[in-house]
Task: structure prediction
Amino acid sequence: MAVSNIEVSETPLVLYALRRADDALILGHRLSEWCGHAPMLEEDMALSNIALDLIGQARELYSYAAKAEGKNNDEDTLAYLRDVRQYRNLLLVEQPNGDFAQTLVRQLFYSAFADPYWRAMMTSRDATLAAIAAKSEKESAYHLRHASEWIIRLGDGTDESHQRAQAAIDHLWAFTGEMFAVDEGERALIHAGIAVDPGTLRGRWLATLSHVVGEATLTLPQNDWMQQGGRAGRHSEHLGHLLSELQSMQRTFPGLTW
Amino acid sequence: MYTQALNTAETDDRGLEDATKAAQFQARIDAEERIEPNDWMPAAYRKTLTRQISQHAHSEIVGMLPEGNWITRAPTLRRKAALLAKVQDECGHGLYLYAAAETLGASREELVDAMLAGKAKYSSIFNYPTLTWADIGTIGWLVDGAAIMNQIPLCRCSYGPYARAMIRVCKEESFHQRQGYEIMLTLCRGSLEQKAMAQDALNRWWWPVLMMFGPPDATSQHSDTSTKWKIKRFSNDELRQKFVDATVPQAQYLGLTIPDPGMTQDAEGHWGYSEIDWTEFKQVLAGNGPCNRDRMAARRKAHDEGAWVREAAAAYAAKRAHRQTAQAAE
Result:
């Protein structure tokens, strides 16, 4: 039996919460794929821990999006019953895990943004977003530290790890521009003091990356061509496969309680 | 998650060691004192414990795989988070257990290498597949339930680091067990399809779970020294019986049928069960269970593909130490 996708009334606030929820869920899901398969047990623990934080953030953000929408949706309908074109996450977070270097570079790129982002969001005029930010900020500080330490180890480790880390940076760089893009709806939320202008965080983000990458004896690419589309539901081919796995139970057994 | 009575007998070589020390050691055991890493202990005690604790650690780590198989497909976000946290706990148990084994003088690397080479065992139960979501509930309910039955007495094991690790592990396991039972309860109160899924999972897991307690006492030749050393406090059959007695009413409450038409309750309330198929158990231990090859392949793949990461971490640590030494010399 086919299960229809839900419809979401994407007001600027609903869309804003959904985009951040989708980022957290998809990245958390990707990290959870490592559980049981990491290079060492300590990393099975650490990557699962980061995944749990992100899934927790996603749940709060989905619940808030559902509440802001005021229809019958909830965290699970939003996560399990929207198709690829309705997902609003960054292209960066849906990129496959690849090798350990690719996973950790993806994490560094994201967390170097998420950490100052959530700190800035703590002063949002939206009390729920400010509360989510206060919790997420503590988590993202640890995520950033963990990713930074690994990039330094990999970059300044062996020739092989250096090459793999550099290849991951070069591969994922084009997905970073999207973090700083703002559309009209978000612009209005920024003016209202609800959202943070991500453009104001770019300098901090780049400074963090430059420091870590420099310490790691790696380099940031000069190429400034950036891929975009995730925020509007134009994804890479990878997301559909992730969703078909993530959503398989809800799609196969519609409407049941688990 | 689990330790299984797979040990083969260690020869009691106390005759070769200082007889006075051996007598003092046994007196401490008899007085229920804890043996600590720096205390004198018979070589066979050390060897038995190293093997048991490392098998237990391997079981935790291999045990991440069947449940990990459902992390990306858990049916709700709440279930996904709970399952991921549970599998992460198993990994944590593996880590403390390797650390406990290291107090006996074995390194984690050599223990893991023995497992990857197929020379060390892990619990037979993890060689069965998780086919549906109900298997996740059943593993929590029954596999963790059986593990708790086995591990509660280990909290009083004579070896201090193992006993203390078990206290923490048991607390987490009992949380997992309740979580698994709650998954089963949700399925059994759900649609007919969900209840059928729960019954099917029970049908597949029941007998393998009973095998977790190890071979029957009549054929198990090696519990004597472990009992004398207070590593093992109950026999395989005693623990199996406790488990069956505790589980029957839980199954009844769920409205599920245990797949053993021969079960009867005696005057004292104990549930008798039919003969276990020990041929299947031996085949699984010999490497012929449904998932033995997949489990080993998955662990070897993670180990092999992670080699460059571990090498990088070691190389970086060495470079850093070298730089610090050079700076200190300036």
